[in-house]
TrEMBL record:
Alphabetized InterPro entries for the sequence: AB_hydrolase_fold, AXE1_dom, CE7
Descriptive protein name: Acetylxylan esterase
Transmembrane segments: none
GO biological process: polysaccharide metabolic process
Amino-acid positions noted as binding substrate in the UniProt annotation, renumbered to this chain: Y91
Domain Acetyl xylan esterase: 2-317
Active site: S186, D272, H301
Chain segments carrying region Disordered: 117-141
GO molecular function list: carboxylic ester hydrolase activity
């Protein structure tokens, strides 16, 4: 069933920004601290049996200097420097294997697939631990880890990792640093959206059914996971709700969208109970750069699937060449 506002209301839905005091200073300080650690990006050749690609097991220093794993893939026959797609992952998954990421290198682009610290699953394995503990009691998952203080929140580390992933890609000799695009679905879409407000000079962004945007509304209109982690936490942590919501405001995609300059392609699905469509429309309407939106009326969290990927390929050709 449709899960949110009617489409005619969504097309004009533009709620106020949930910007906390000191938002820009918080992120400036966070990224300045991260850059006190050498990026020390490394690219070790591997042979996964893909004759048309050059594949590298990559590492770089993310938040706190913690080593973050990635795949770096290059079309073997292409001459560099190449445009590059930095790919972020959905919630609960890891970087998988090189053959799982053939779309962008087959289109002729360098591709860096960032592993997600502390996330993995039986069908989506990851390779990057999260060495930071968290103080407040939480529920299983990542959304409540460190939730009572923006300084300690899990997504402060993950967003910082994502910024450093762009820096690692830009520093590779095979990459044209002026032609880097960020991409992701769900949590990955939320990371891509955040990068548009944190990383200057991006060539573009692919923001598909973005998680972690317009968070206050999301937790009011869905109990589905992962947002359900927050509502379950709030049901027990009754005295901490306002503190936690203020933390979440520091990571809300609406605030990054309002600072964006790169062209972006969004995707949203009207039957999505995981990421309510009003949250994606809100991000789209606040997005300050050039933008396009694909709306999938009869799809859930999978969004437009292959049709969305086709639209992304066309968009990438337009902004990357």
């Amino acid at each position: 069933m449709f899960t949110d506002l009617p489409l005619d209301e969504l097309r004009t839905y533009r709620p106020p920004l949930p910007e906390p005091p000191g938002f820009d200073a918080f992120w400036h300080r966070t990224l300045t601290e991260a850059r006190t650690h050498e990026l020390a990006a490394s690219f070790t050749p591997v042979d996964p049996g893909l004759a048309l690609l050059r594949c590298y097991d990559a590492e770089f220093s993310g938040f706190g200097g913690h080593r973050i794993r990635a795949w770096f893939l290059l079309p073997r026959a292409a001459a560099g420097p190449l445009p590059c797609v930095v790919q972020y992952l959905g919630y609960g998954g890891g970087r998988l294997l090189p053959h799982d990421w053939l779309l962008w290198p087959c289109a002729g682009y360098a591709t860096l697939v960032m592993d997600t610290r502390g996330q993995s699953g039986p069908n989506r394995p990851g390779d990057t631990p999260d060495p930071v503990g968290y103080g407040n009691p939480g529920v299983p998952g990542k959304l409540t880890q460190g939730l009572l203080d923006p300084e300690d929140y899990y997504y402060r580390r993950l967003y910082t990792d994502a910024v450093r992933a762009v820096e690692a890609a830009r520093g590779h000799e095979a990459v044209d640093a002026a032609r880097v695009l960020v991409a992701g679905h769900s949590q990955g879409g939320g990371l891509a959206l955040a990068m548009t407000g944190l990383v200057p000079g991006l060539a573009g962004a692919l923001v598909d059914v973005p998680f972690l945007t317009h968070i206050r509304r999301a937790i009011d209109v869905t109990d589905a996971g992962p947002y359900g982690e927050l509502t379950r936490y709030f049901a027990g942590a009754r005295g901490h709700i306002d503190t936690a919501l203020t933390t979440l405001d520091h990571f809300d995609g609406l605030n990054f969208a309002a600072r964006a300059t790169a062209p972006a392609l969004f995707g949203t699905a009207l039957r999505d109970a995981v990421v309510p469509p009003s949250t994606g429309f809100a991000a789209y309407h606040h997005y300050a750069g050039e933008k396009e939106l694909q709306v999938w009326r009869y799809n859930a969290h999978e969004g437009g699937g292959g049709e969305q990927r086709a639209a992304e390929l066309a968009f990438a050709r337009k902004v990357l060449g």
